[in-house]
Design goal:
homodimer; mainly alpha
Amino acid sequence: MLARSMVFLFLCAVGLVAGAAADGTVSLSEGKKSARVCGSCHGPKGIARVESYPSLAGQSAQYLAKQLRAFRDGSRTDPQMSVLAKSLSDDEIVNVSAWYASLSSCK
Amino acid sequence: MLARSMVFLFLCAVGLVAGAAADGTVSLSEGKKSARVCGSCHGPKGIARVESYPSLAGQSAQYLAKQLRAFRDGSRTDPQMSVLAKSLSDDEIVNVSAWYASLSSCK
């Protein structure tokens, strides 16, 4: 049981570090792809260049994913984000959130 | 008219740099005072230490103020922020937003 848990944790770690796409693991590379559409408002590296939008770089993946789910289910609304989030799958939300969390928050 | 505008701009600049409280000007020192209650979730310097909360340091004052007004008017909801924002005046929102915007976003 312990050995199985260790293997699972190892595979998760590989998925996180290498950004490899795999069911149930976080994929930074997939997150980076999904983030392309976000760059025009939130900046190509998650540092917003427009005053009215937030920077996402370095925010926790948990917080970002919660906001994306809120935009998707309508509990938080925004003219642009409400539309964009509607098309995101659970995996895409996890991956794109992990991608922004991995970026430096320094401007 | 031009001279009066110059004086107004100068006073605003003094207010911004020195953080002096004055009607209609931004006060970083007042913003810092209001931010005390925010520190337990968003960190004493605006860098959140809890995964479920966002870091505020270095976000634009415009974005932060918009979110605080949204929490205050109910268009954005959160169990804690909806309650906290209810008590904020327009000036307090401007000042506390300017305070967080003035802090370094680097962790």
